[in-house]
Each structure stands twice: as C-alpha cells, then as structure tokens.
TrEMBL record:
The keyword Ligase does not apply. Transmembrane segments: none annotated. It comes from Ciccaba nigrolineata. GO terms for biological process: cellular response to calcium ion. GO terms for cellular component: plasma membrane. This is CPNE7 protein.
Length: 515
C-alpha cells in the first residue's frame, strides 16, 4: 500500500482491514466557558464523537466537573489511530444537570470543535475556539486537546494511596480530601494523570486503588518528576489547597511488597509563615503493583534470539521424489513446494537469529544405515549437531538427503514437537528470556498421531516456543485447522486447554503466488 507507483494510488482492497498503527490517548481541557447557570458556574462535561459513514457517533464522555469554567478533565480518551485514514473527531461541551443526562437541551450546549486524529497527532497539542450552533463563537471559549501515542504498550501500574492528619480546612466539619497526580513534561508543563474520588469529612482518608498506564504516569521514564496535590473539595468549585509533594515513579517503586513510602504534604505558604511548621499531613503509598505488558519488539530489542528449527515431512504420500508429480521432486530449473515454503518463512526468521544456524529435521522416512523409520532425524545425518549454515545450508542438506532415504510413514508430528520443547524447557529454566524457539513444520496433510500431537502442543504452550505449520500440496488440511485453534481453543485429549495459542497453520497453495 505504501509503495504505490507515482501517479494514482492503488485502491485499498475492501476486505483488508487497515492496520492499527497505534492507540492514541487524548486529554482535554477548556478555558473561559460560557456561564449558563444563574446562581453558580456551569458544570461542564465533554462528549467525544467520531464520524463513521457520515454519521457522528458518541465514542465516550468525560466526568462532570462541578462549577468550573476552566476545567481540566481527568478522563483520558483512547482512540485507534489509522495512519492512512482521515478520522474526523468532534468534541462537544455541555453544562450537565446530573439528573437529565448530558446533551439534551440547546441551552446546555457550551460549544463544539471539529478536527481530525491526524491533526492532533501531528501537532501534539491543538487549541481551538468552541463554536455554538450556526457557526457562532461561544464567547472566548477554547478547548485544548493533547495527544500521546501509546508506544509499545509496556504495561500499567496500580497504586493505592492514603493520607494521615491532613489540615482541617472546614469550619463546621472536617476536610473532604482528594488527590491529584500531575506529570511534569520536558517543557515544564503539567499533565493531569489521575484525580481520585473525594473522601468526605475525613482527615486520614484512604482512597480507592487505581490503575494508570506507565506511559501516562511518567512517559515510561522512571526519573520523571511528578507533582501530587491534596485538595479539600468544595462543591462550588473553589477547592482549598491542603498541600503538595514531589516524587518520581522510581521512588514510588519502594512501596512494593510489605514496604510503604510516605511523603510530607507541604503548603509552601505555611512553611514561610509558621516558625515550627512541619507539614500539612502525610501521604502514604500503601501498595504499588506493576503489570508489565511486553511486546515482541521489547524482547527482540532486549537481546532475545530466535532459534529456528525446520521439520520436513518425508512420508510416502508426498510421492516418489524421482517422479515429477511428487511434492519432493527435485526440479533442476525451479525449487519444489517444500523448498519454496522453507525459503519464504526462513528468510523472515533469519533476521532475528544472530548465528544464522538452523536445525533441520525430517520425519516419516526410513533412514540409513539400517533403514528403520524415524520421526526426528537430522537431515544432515549428524545426530550430534543437526544445525545447518543459513537457509542455503538447509536447502543443500535437503537436496543431498533425499536420494539416501526411503519415503515411508506414518505422519507422526509429536516426536519433533517434543524434541524442540525439551530444548525450550531447558531455556525456560534459566529464566533469562534470551532464546525463543520457532518450529516450522512442512507437511502434505493428514497427521496420524493426532492425540499425541495435541498433547505435545498443550505442553509446549507453557514454553518459549511457537509452531508454524505450512501445508504443502492440495491435500485435506482439516487436522491442521484443528491444531491452529482459531475456531476454538485447542485442547489435549484429556481436555486441558493450551495456555497460549502457539500454532499458526498456513496452506501454502493460498500464498505461493503472492509476492
């Protein structure tokens, strides 16, 4: 799609779904909103709409902020970003009345703004005026949308805070505290990361635990400064400042396990005025849990190597290699289907394997010297080292092994899966995550040891390995579709499900003519 020739871009094929390049987080704030309420200020709420087939559909809405004409919304809107599509967005701000819901009356409409996801992503920060119906300006009202790409979604963190002995700001009752966390960006601007709920009438509140992405909390930089502020809630929107403290995600991580981290909640004005001022209370991080989500790229960039093993089906159903109808026929002018499939997958995998040595095994043939059937023999006939140098080495071993063996049967796949699984299990025990194993099985169809194969795959799903099965020729590939598990979870004969879906089946006939 990207490398269209000059001139006309090709039409995208209707059935091909666009690749989601990334997810984008949007944060919204407004300034100088119109005041629709006679007694107190508007209670704004933002709706996000997206255009789909010419219709505006509501995607999500923010929380309602009481009595505030310059709201900073804590809600983070997440949208899928498609690079090659114009994605129209519309933000609508309403004055909420709690009971009637949002966006029902024209008089509650505080203004709207339209833009595209692309514009926000390109500019990172977009500030535009809000418009009422018929293109009228909504006074001096503006809306600001800040975007952040969620890169390689590397997890989220769960935090649980409480406070002790906060200053009392209320005359007749105790303070109603809530906590805000801001991330301080490189340009010194502050981004609201999270706002807790309000705990009423309590100077030692325990706030509900909450989750935020590491991207949102600290842009995935542990040393980035965070500002945490405790306020006393006021229903008229004039929240009283209790105190603040600065920290980093690095410091927060000391709260893992049994430990707790605490900070003095400071009011700078009191510090100057009062001689023996200690603090305005203490904020305690009771617990921190990191849930990391690693992508394939994280492992590769962390130095994980991919070890590639190819297993070739040498059963008699492939046809006599000397016969031109055989799938194993060695044609001097062009590679057979086995070789084509091997090269197609191998060339991709070899980029991630630094030593470029591939294990090459065969199954279902009688092999010298005694011509007994083997289901996991090295095609270079070196049982101590089944590795070949590069894809070319595998091709050469394959060509030289064919005349020496007798195609036979049955098609037993489990022994080879178990063989690779044993090596993967040894790797698993090191806890290093330095090697991942890919087994490419090239076969012409029906598996004989289906029950054993299912059992072997379920066992292997707990290990650092994946299996790609390429079906060569025009046989019935029903068995392979079952092993792939796309139309339901693959289970062992005893009914135990796979831990991960580790099998991908590809019928080569559907792909061999694709570039």
């Amino acid at each position: 799609r990207a490398t269209a020739t000059m001139g006309e871009a090709p039409e995208p094929s209707p059935q091909a779904p666009l690749a989601v390049l990334s997810k984008v987080e949007l944060r919204v704030s407004c300034r100088h909103l119109l005041d629709r309420d006679t007694l107190n200020k508007s209670d704004p709420c933002v709706l996000l709409l997206m255009q789909s087939q010419g219709q505006w559909m509501e995607v999500d809405r923010s929380e309602v902020i009481k009595s505030n004409l310059n709201p900073v919304f804590a809600k983070i809107f997440t949208v899928d970003y498609y690079f090659e599509e114009v994605q129209k967005l519309r933000f609508e701000v309403y004055d909420s009345h709690g009971h009637t819901g949002v966006g029902t009356h024209d008089d509650d409409f505080l203004g709207g703004m339209e833009c595209t996801v692309g514009q926000i992503v390109a500019q990172k920060r977009v500030t535009k005026p809000l418009f009422l119906k018929y293109g009228k300006f909504a006074g001096k009202s503006t809306i600001t949308v800040i975007s952040e790409e969620i890169s390689g979604n590397n997890g989220y963190v769960e935090l649980a805070f409480r406070a002790k002995k906060l200053d009392d700001k209320d005359l007749f009752s105790k303070s109603d505290p809530f906590l805000e966390i801001y991330r301080i960006d490189d340009d010194r601007s502050e981004q609201l990361v999270y706002r807790t709920e309000v705990v009423k009438n309590n100077l030692s509140p325990i706030w509900e635990p909450f989750k935020v992405s590491l991207n949102s909390l600290c842009s995935c930089e542990e040393k980035r400064k965070l500002r945490c502020v405790v306020w006393d809630y006021d229903s008229r929107g004039k929240h009283d400042f209790i105190g603040e403290f600065f920290t980093t995600f690095e410091e927060m991580q000391k709260a893992m396990g049994e430990n707790k981290v605490q900070w003095d909640c400071m009011n700078p004005k009191y510090k100057i005025k009062k001689r023996n001022y200690k603090n305005s209370g203490v904020v305690v991080l009771l617990d921190l849990k990191i849930h990391r989500v690693y992508s394939f790229l994280d492992y590769i960039m962390g130095g994980c190597q991919i070890h590639f093993t190819v297993a070739i089906d040498f059963t008699a159903s492939n046809g006599d290699p000397r016969n031109s109808c055989s799938l194993h026929y060695i044609n001097p002018y062009q590679p057979n289907e086995y070789l084509k499939a091997l090269v197609a997958v191998g060339e991709i995998c070899q980029d991630y394997d630094s030593d470029k040595k591939f294990s090459a095994l065969g199954f279902g043939a009688r092999i010298p010297p005694k011509y007994e059937v083997s289901h996991d023999f090295a095609i270079n006939f070196n049982p101590d080292n089944d590795e070949c140098e590069g894809i070319q080495g595998v091709v050469e071993s394959y060509q030289s092994c064919l005349p020496k063996i007798q195609l036979y049967g049955p098609t037993n796949v489990a022994p080879i899966i178990s063989k690779v699984a044993r090596v993967a299990a040894d790797e698993e025990r090191t806890k290093e995550a330095s090697q991942y194993f890919i087994l490419l099985i090239l076969t012409d169809g029906v598996v004989t040891d289906m029950a054993d194969t299912r059992e072997a795959i379920v066992r292997a799903s707990y290990l650092p390995m994946s299996i790609i099965i390429v079906g060569v020729g025009n046989a019935d590939f029903t068995d392979m579709q079952i092993l792939d598990g796309d139309d339901g979870v693959l289970r062992s004969p005893r009914g135990e499900p796979v831990l991960r879906d580790i099998v991908q089946f590809v019928p080569f006939r559907e792909f061999k003519n694709v570039s």
